[in-house]
TrEMBL record:
<dbReference type="Pfam" id="PF01476">
    <property type="entry name" value="LysM"/>
</dbReference>
<feature type="domain" description="LysM">
    <location>
        <begin position="30"/>
        <end position="78"/>
    </location>
</feature>
<dbReference type="InterPro" id="IPR036779">
    <property type="entry name" value="LysM_dom_sf"/>
</dbReference>
<dbReference type="InterPro" id="IPR052196">
    <property type="entry name" value="Bact_Kbp"/>
</dbReference>
<dbReference type="InterPro" id="IPR018392">
    <property type="entry name" value="LysM"/>
</dbReference>
<keyword id="KW-0732">Signal</keyword>
<protein>
    <submittedName>
        <fullName>Peptidoglycan-binding protein LysM</fullName>
    </submittedName>
</protein>
<feature type="signal peptide">
    <location>
        <begin position="1"/>
        <end position="24"/>
    </location>
</feature>
Length: 334
């Protein structure tokens, strides 16, 4: 009986607590002190079970001037649905920054490339060959159908050689300069040579993702499925999303996009970019004197293949819908 009365009194006492105080207690965070080796990616995965939350963490914490760096001793507030970093105190001389996100062991951060990625065909690009005819002059081919190519022994071809089949789509222009960057290319399937002459060959379609037809061009086949590991950023790079892999206007997580950065700009597979969208002041409440507002982080992409001046990237996180013309940025680890 005494225990029951005590429990009732306890509940009555709690019921008279001020509501704001009760809410504050429920929202009280756990504080974690950042250690050497921590990364925004790892902290997001550890505390929220979502490694891709880190763009939100960066965007909501303006004290992280360079999003690639957090420091030992920084205090992280862990809430059930979010993470917050306390304002940074002046750093003590001699304290080194924690490793950047992209400097984590590459074996732990890899992305699967399926082989269905397209690319932008730039000026000067030359395929290995072309499908010049089909059995019974069929315009659409599928798996196990016969095709003829302009690849022969004089080109180094042998019976059994395998090629990937591609198709050119529409031209892609830069969203800012309107300069034509190339033609969007989609993969159609694979074929294997069965008979080889000096200047041509007969082939069988071994796999068709889409319908194959005359005029489709060929590239030497390479093993498609492989892992792309994150690579440490060794330079600053900034560019734009110029098109999606499907040609659709709305881009989300898991989609492929094309960037206006390639080998000539120092692009490498495994580079990790933030997707940013500029924020403009509402003219009803501010004029240009307020200066440029910090960009909004809306996602992240990983580069999977590179051309001379363009590259193909996988969208690994989209907080909001991504569009052609959104900016991408990578900061060198400092």
């Amino acid at each position: 009986m005494k225990k029951l009365l005590s429990a009732i009194l306890c509940l009555m006492t709690l019921s008279f607590l001020p509501l704001p105080a009760a809410l504050a207690a429920a929202d009280e965070p756990t504080v974690y002190v950042i250690q050497k080796g921590d990364t925004l990616w790892g902290l997001s995965e550890r505390f929220l079970n979502d490694p891709y939350y880190w763009p939100n963490l960066w965007a909501r914490n303006p004290t992280i001037g360079n999003p690639h760096f957090i420091f030992p001793g920084d205090r992280l507030k862990v809430y059930p649905d979010r993470l917050e970093i306390e304002p940074r105190q002046p750093r003590t001389a001699g304290v080194a920054p924690v490793a950047a996100l992209s400097e984590e062991p590459v074996a732990e951060r890899t992305f699967q490339v399926t082989g269905s990625e397209g690319f932008l065909r730039e000026d000067g690009f030359k395929p290995a060959g072309t499908i010049i005819s089909t059995a019974q002059n069929r315009q659409l081919l599928g798996t196990d159908d016969i095709a003829y190519t302009d690849i022969g022994r004089l080109h180094g071809a042998q019976v059994g050689d395998r090629f990937s089949i591609y198709k050119e789509m529409e031209q892609v222009s830069h969203p800012v300069t309107n300069v034509i960057l190339g033609e969007r290319v989609v993969p159609l399937g694979t074929l294997q040579l069965t008979e080889v002459d000096d200047k041509n060959s007969k082939a069988i379609i071994t796999r068709a993702y889409q319908e194959v037809g005359p005029g489709s061009f060929l590239l030497p086949y390479r093993e498609k499925r492989h892992q792309v590991a994150l690579r440490a950023a060794d330079k600053d790079l900034s560019g734009y999303i110029v098109a999606s892999g499907t040609g659709n206007n709305l881009i989300g997580e898991g989609d492929l996009v094309f960037l206006d950065l390639g080998k000539r700009q120092g692009m490498l597979p495994g580079y990790f970019f933030y997707v940013l969208r500029e924020v403009t002041p509402d003219p009803r409440y501010a004029d240009i004197s307020v200066g440029k507002l910090p960009p909004e982080v809306i996602g992240a992409v990983v580069v999977v293949t590179t051309g001379e001046n363009t590259s193909t990237a996988l969208v690994v996180k989209s907080i909001d819908t991504i569009y052609r013309g959104d900016r991408v940025e990578m900061k060198k680890s400092r």
